[in-house]
Amino acid sequence: QICESSGESLVPCEGECCSVFHMECLGLKAMPDEKFVCAECKNGEHTCFSCKLPGKDVKRCSVNTCGKFYHEACVRKFATALFESRGFRCPQHCCTACSMDKDIHKASKGRMVRCLRCPIAYHSGDGCIAAGSLFVSSHILICSNHSKRSHSSSAVNVGFCFVCARGGKLLCCESCPASFHPECLNIEMPEGCWNCNDCKAGKKLRYKQIVWVKLGNYRQVRWWWPAEICNPRSVPLNIQGLKHDIGDFPVFFFGSHDYYWVHQGRVFPYVEGDKSFAEGQTSINKTFKKALEEAAKRFQELKAQRESKEALEIERNSRKPPPYKHIKVSWLLSVPVFILCIGKVQIQVADLSEIPRCNCKPSDENPCGLESECLNRMLQYECHPQVCPAGERCQNQCFTKRLYPDAEIIKTDRRGWGLRTKRSIKKGEFVNEYVGELIDEEECRLRIKRAHENSVTNFYMLTVTKDRIIDAGPKGNYSRFMNHSCNPNCETQKWTVNGDIRVGLFALCDIPAGMELTFNYNLDCLGNGRTECHCGAENCSGFLGVRPKTAFATANEEKVKNAKLKQKKRKIKTEQKQMHEDNCFQCGDGGELVMCDKKDCPKAYHLLCLNLTQPPFGKWECPWHQCDVCSNPAVSFCEFCPHSFCRDHEKGALVASALDGHLCCSAHD
């Protein structure tokens, strides 16, 4: 921790930091007889591994062998940090490169190589480690972020925009060769230094990557030259001995087969079929032509290797579900009350005197059973073994005794993994308990945000109450594999067990052995995003969170039937309701729709397309009747979407389309 060098005679600190030191760096001539504790562990003021500022408000990483301390605000800046009930796992236990590639499941697995100076870690091997990193030992490195090269003189930028490939007045990145027109990025020309989005996000070049390199007038050529980034250990010894620093890496030039040390400021990635630097040039020499051919060939070789590796990994992963920790009951319910809860979640434990007592008797045929008249079962209370009159014969303790029918995890056609029962199940029978980590709403939103940032699309969250949500993602049981169906054979029920609310899955009908177990997710969508449903049921609505078609159609038919039996005035109103369109005017899909109440307006919408969570109250007019600019009454209407305009803003807003001259706004071709 002092000289940043490996070697022998290392003295480990027996305190919380897990650091090691050379004896000579500590001024010791021999190994200490007693346990050695460093100065920081003695005074209790550890330094934040991110901002390097000491203090007593820092918290330790929850991994026992880590020993890194952080301010909570500092560690939350890293997307690779994982917050748990007992604290957090710092970014050094998650591969930065895999996290950049949105491969969140792979990111935290495998052997890591960690940076000695900052919270960066990579999987060992050329596939993830950033080019230009300096190895200190087999599992310790100094990453390329610690280059001593000043940014003001490091980058050699290209003379064209990376978006439109044209020249002109360009905005140049200070850390890499990227250049852009400000208008192509929809920003104003910034003042001072500026870095592109890839550099801001920490995206790095890797070994075995084909790149374009600029070395002044390399070989008297004005163009960028194709090359491959090499691991320093794989280049000739004389090249390894050339002067270089942290952040520098060797490249192999195609065509000439030379090596040279460069840095990120003179290199940018090669793209498949990239020959733009040679187009229009009449004086290209044979070496450069050969370089282009070799680069294209090598790029295809590496692409084939990468695809083969990915296919093998996909095939291997398809044999079993993604990893999770199997638990028997919801995690916070299975531990003592003094364990730290995730957020504001509190565990409720009832006193025996507060638990309701049913009227069943031990002599009954099936006391507290499915077909009994047990009051607790009717009110969805589980009997307590010390309170129930039926004693050991009580059949209303399925949650506590975990009386689940045998089931197995299966691979479905279009819905990932599912759950199938191995034996027949009666209607109303207990199937499973939905268990996981108990979190509050704030933690739930943080997890969803983190999942979106990492392109995670599978969620296992089930709301019990507003501030009580079960997340079966990291921890759960077989119930987490049950798929959604618009015509399910199971349903969720909230039961009170020993004073606390728990969620059980119960059969809606008789289920034969070998049948997949499903329930309706009743999904609440955040924003306009909708998940397509693949349940295959006849009444499938097409999307999760949209009421099944058959149920909705049946309800409408019943309303029409009742209306016909009533007076003529009521019948006319019913017929008028049928004039509304069957598809949403915003997205064009069917399903459960909200109708506009304005006279003669046939438009209908999904609640999600209106950014509403519940139907509007009272008489409601759709957004087609308000100007998009000022919300005043509209006089000009787009006939393909809800865009409309008032007299002050209609000029030039709509044009006649090729479809019989129907007016359309700029959102349509």
Structure commentary:
- With 669 residues, the chain is α+β, with helices and mostly antiparallel strands.
- 16% of the residues lie in helices and 18% in strands.
- The protein has a domain of 195 residues: SET domain (Beta-clip-like, Beta Complex), CATH 2.170.270.
- Helix 12 packs antiparallel against helix 13.
- The longest helix has 32 residues.
- It is globular, with a radius of gyration of 33 Å.
- The relative contact order is 0.05.
- About 5% of the residues have low confidence.
Summary keywords:
alpha+beta, ubl conjugation, 13 helices, 4-stranded mixed beta sheet, globular, 669 residues, Post-SET_dom, 37 strands, Beta-clip-like, 5-stranded antiparallel beta sheet
